[in-house]
């Protein structure tokens, strides 16, 4: 139960690792907390504590002198099209985080809490916060990339000529279907209905 109650700690620890590029810093070999802190403009002592928290999650390893990457941390690399970095950033950013903070209000009222939490509907909020919008779009694209091949493989296409990817962000899923099934035409739409 304690793990469930404190699960949000993990979300923020992972977000910090993603935000400050630990996977990229450790990609070519071990590094000290001080070196990472200096490269990112962070406090060295706080960075050391954060990296030690990452050790407890299996994100990094520590040999007493330096930190090194793990396969789990590699999922947060910036240069991997299937990276979960943007998901880690977007899910703990204000656009999602603040709305989840009003979850019990949603249970009481039955109403979505996006506007009370953010002052705007989510896509209007994203229009005002382009960095968050970019992270969210990249996260959705990465998740789509992970499943697009399987979707294209199992899709029953008998009698279907057109694919519409609603909420398609970069349209990776529909693009994969279009490449796999040349007779298709398609479009991707990211605007809310």
From TrEMBL:
InterPro entries: COMT-like, COMT_C, COMT_dimerisation, SAM-dependent_MTases_sf, WH-like_DNA-bd_sf, WH_DNA-bd_sf. Gene3D superfamilies: Vaccinia Virus protein VP39, Winged helix-like DNA-binding domain superfamily/Winged helix DNA-binding domain. Keywords: Methyltransferase, S-adenosyl-L-methionine, Transferase. SUPFAM superfamilies: S-adenosyl-L-methionine-dependent methyltransferases, Winged helix' DNA-binding domain. One of its GO terms (biological process) is methylation. The keyword Transferase applies. PROSITE patterns: SAM_OMT_II. Residues 100-184 form the O-methyltransferase C-terminal domain. GO terms for molecular function: O-methyltransferase activity; protein dimerization activity. Residues 3-72 form the O-methyltransferase dimerisation domain. PANTHER family: O-METHYLTRANSFERASE CICE, PUTATIVE (AFU_ORTHOLOGUE AFUA_4G14580)-RELATED. This is O-methyltransferase. It comes from Enterovirga aerilata.
């Amino acid at each position: 139960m304690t793990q469930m109650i404190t699960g949000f700690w993990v979300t923020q620890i992972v977000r910090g690792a993603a935000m400050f590029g630990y996977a990229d810093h450790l990609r070519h070999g071990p590094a000290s907390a001080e070196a990472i802190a200096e490269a990112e403009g962070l406090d060295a002592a706080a960075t050391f504590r954060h990296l030690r928290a990452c050790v407890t999650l299996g994100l990094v390893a520590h040999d007493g002198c330096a930190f090194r990457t793990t396969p789990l941390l590699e999922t947060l690399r910036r240069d991997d099209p299937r990276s979960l970095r943007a998901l880690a950033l977007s899910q703990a950013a204000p656009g999602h985080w603040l709305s989840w903070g009003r979850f019990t209000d949603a249970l009481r009222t039955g109403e979505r809490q996006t506007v009370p939490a953010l002052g705007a509907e989510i896509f209007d909020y994203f229009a005002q916060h382009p960095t968050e919008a970019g992270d969210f779009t990249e996260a959705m694209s990465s998740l789509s990339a992970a499943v697009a091949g399987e979707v294209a493989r199992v899709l029953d296409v008998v009698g279907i000529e057109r694919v519409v990817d609603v909420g398609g962000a970069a349209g990776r899923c529909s693009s994969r279907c279009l490449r796999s099934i040349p007779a298709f035409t398609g479009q991707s739409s990211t605007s809310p209905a």
